[in-house]
Amino acid sequence: MHVEETQQKVNKAKKADKKQRRCLAIIKSDCEVSPSAEPTPYLAVLNVGLSNGLTEECLLTEAAATGGKVIQVVMLPGKSYCFFICASLEDSQLIYEGMHNISTIGQQGAVAYLSYIRQLPALAGKSEWNKPLPRGLHIIADFVTEEEESTLLRAIGEDGRTSEGTGSLKHRNVKHFGFEFLYGTNNVDPSKPLEQSIPSACDILWPRLNSFASTWDWSSPDQLTVNEYEPGHGIPPHVDTHSAFLDPILSLSLQSDVVMDFRRGDDQVQVRLPRRSLLIMSGEARYDWTHGIRPKHIDVVPSASGGLTTQARGKRTSLTFRRLRKGPCDCSYPALCDTQQTKVPQELHASLAAQAITLEQQNVHEVYDKIADHFSETRHTPWPQVSEFLDSFEPQSVVLDIGCGNGKYLSCNPLLLSVGCDRAQGLLAVGRRKGQNVFRCDCLVVPVRSSSIDGCISIAVIHHLATKERRLAALQEMARVLRPGGRALVYVWAKDQRKNDKKSTYLRQNKAVNKERTTEQQQRQKQHQELEQQLSNNNPLPVHTNRTEFQQQDVLVPWKTKDEQKTTYLRYYHVFEEQELENLVSQVHEVQLIKSYYDQGNHCAIFEKISKNSL
Amino acid sequence: MKLSTYNFLTSVAIKGVKVGFPLKLTINKKEVVESEFNPTFVERILPKLDWSAVYGAAQVAELTEDIPAVQPENIVENELLLQKLHHLLFEIDVLEGQLECPETGRVFPISDGIPNMLLNEDEV
Ligand SMILES: [Zn+2]
């Protein structure tokens, strides 16, 4: 028995050796790889790759299970093999021993064969590195000498304003000269120059740029941000705010090389920034591509022979030189342009007024009818401060929920007589099934006796109305049905989804951004491309990207259905600026504002109908 | 639709309508949903209701033997009446029927227990 088992093992190993050799021979006919009997940091997976439907994720999971650390997976399109670059020899050994002839990641659960190789084939580097640089991107190698490097480091080491180490900044040290770059708003305050301007040690740099500078907006910068990156630190992909800075933006790399990623939509280009080189981002590269650095200890870069190799990062200091714009941006790259994305043309107000009813019909009522059930599933937990308001009424008060949706607030306080109304039949039916009192109407024409109601709530409703007049009319209608002394609570979505630098739940649910896997800008650009394919282009309004900050007040917010079609519906919203709700309430007759507050990305107001006696 | 809800509904928003209340109720199908009787609840809700519409509802629901045409004064002590009001206002559920504007005759259908009070733009 024991002998048999041993024999089987030997047979299996022999079979694996044979397979390994055969696969290597096939790969060799394809590209130059030389196997190594001794462990190397490079591993080839010989019999499975992209052409077999293998994903990088699957590979990384398998490798992680062995305890070995992978720096990069190299997969080539259309090939049935792929490569690992491992963090160290030990990691490489762990992966080899844990996966070779063991891992069943092949087609139909076939076992994978691995081999150490001396170097990655030249082919592997091509797809990643042989792309042209983004237009307007230049790298000037050896822009400063080693001597100048030390002089510059000394000069910036002495002074400058240090950023508070919060948020994404916790990973690196940041200093500012000229003006402070505010990471919260990604902007500068031109009215607040810093005492310390750019150190004069930097003056040697500008004459060297004469040949370029003829086409630039500026010839010397007035703002410098210094970032110190330890190995493993990075910066999420971003574009420098268009309206904050002129074209171009310069970045001098000191102390260590690094690889920077440039992206535009699905396009991605990796760019090596050697120590003491100057990066120039101008035109398209400055305005239409995001740039970022992945938080890694080791970069994978092209080797001298054309393959790939690894390069450990050292401590790197970058000097980013910019010049303040002090006005709107006039670039021709609207996708990431804050000026062009936030501009509310005068005509928009006129067109909203003209189309209000059609817009609300198509982009509010019809959408809610279509998404009623799915929407209702996502709306089950009452907001605590709304419940609190409902609990503040005497027992047996009559409370009307205008725009009650699925009626989640109608059963919050069973001591009240709660009645709800909404336009969306599908949502009313959900509430009705739960035994609630509901009827169908429009929030502008509420079929309820005047002065008959003790309390009124309107939660996330009037931001669906397309003009100020209509929003005001909805509040006036609430005031009409309230009895004197009766109180109303209104919630509307806030344009600003942060308070005191804290993100609302809406933003916090954007996990990819919060974990710095991507940025809002990246997501906007991606959605922009997706929607262009999916929807007709004659949307009257800009389309908002979910779980990102609002760029403008009147927007269409996508709702993706959960079914297989994944249909995108666009809901119209007017998101409120600070004080806008209070101002609106102040224009309603017969009421006074009791309280207003910000709650989870909403502006909220409580008002009371003035009793006749106090008039 | 419970008859307590009915008590609040009006067609006053229709162009030219002066009062629009009480609406003319027709019940084609109803059911009785039993609920716990709480005399205090009924008693405290009453001042918020319009008695003419309470009585009107009782007429349509054929409960006029229980509900007087004029609101009695000492209703607090009349627990039997409170119980009957509880039944009328909170237990009778209109599933199918209609509400009609007393001035224009505009009909608002009630189906699956939900009155549709939506007006067209040109009606208001
Ligand atoms: Zn711009």
Automatic annotation (TrEMBL), chain A:
Gene Ontology cellular-component annotations: cytoplasm; nucleus
BP GO annotations: methylation; tRNA modification
Keywords: Cytoplasm, Metal-binding, Methyltransferase, Nucleus, RNA-binding, S-adenosyl-L-methionine, Transferase, Zinc
Region Disordered, residue ranges: 509-544
Record InterPro entries: AlkB-like, AlkB-like_sf, AlkB_tRNA_MeTrf/Diox, ALKBH8_RRM, Methyltransf_11, Nucleotide-bd_a/b_plait_sf, Oxoglu/Fe-dep_dioxygenase_dom, RBD_domain_sf
A GO molecular-function descriptor: metal ion binding
One Pfam family linked to the record: Methyltransf_11
Cellular localisation: Cytoplasm; Nucleus
Co-factor(s): Fe(2+)
Domain Fe2OG dioxygenase: 220-325
Database matches in PANTHER family: ALKYLATED DNA REPAIR PROTEIN ALKB HOMOLOG 8 (PTHR13069)
Protein name from the UniProt record: SD10403p
Lineage per the UniProt record: Eukaryota, Metazoa, Ecdysozoa, Arthropoda, Hexapoda
Gene name in the database record: Alkbh8
